[in-house]
Amino acid sequence: MKMLIVFASKTGVTKDVAHALKNKLEGDVTVEEMRFVNDRMLELYDYVVLGAPVYMGHALSKMRSFVKRYQNVLLEKRLAFFFVGGDGESDLEELLKGYGKLFSGKGEFMVHMGGEFRFEKMGFFSRFIVKMVTKSKAKKTGQSGLPMLNAESLESLAESLNGVLAETRVEPDATQAL
Ligand SMILES: Cc1cc2nc3c(=O)[nH]c(=O)nc-3n(C[C@H](O)[C@H](O)[C@H](O)COP(=O)(O)O)c2cc1C
User: Is-contact 98 64, C-beta < 8 A?
Assistant: First the structure.
């Protein structure tokens, strides 16, 4: 079983999550940024995990374009999805719809990882919008309004994917018995 984690990221949060996920997996797992992945590379893997951040209510548009461009090869694979965003309550099914209706029900696992605001990596306009939204949220809820990554979600996805990797792993003892 060869597994590929493909991610897109603007300020580096999804990139960090993708690498943290890979570090928790035991097996033949590669992590690669979306812009270095094409259909020929996808063909080499049995299982693809797609990780994208959420911007303005949707998975990052570059990732949506990537999925649509390579949908034929992706739909032949076993798939899992994770999303990273400041609003931990985003509807996962709605986010998945952004990849096209053919992907509905195709994810063996779908996880929301929470998110972070890396203000230092944002442009002026993004920083301005996020600060406004955060302030108004804090006023309404009385809490800081700053999102956090969810370590439990990461653990849970890693556990599920390790289950998949273990399904097909041939243990050394088993080989000897053959
Ligand atoms: C302009 C802007 C819009 C955003 N819109 C959303 C949103 O609609 N929903 C959400 O959950 N998070 C939203 N976020 C938060 C990002 O998803 C979050 O910061 C995420 O951790 C960024 O991941 P990245 O560094 O991999 O790009 C937004 C952030 C910015 C700067």
Answer: yes
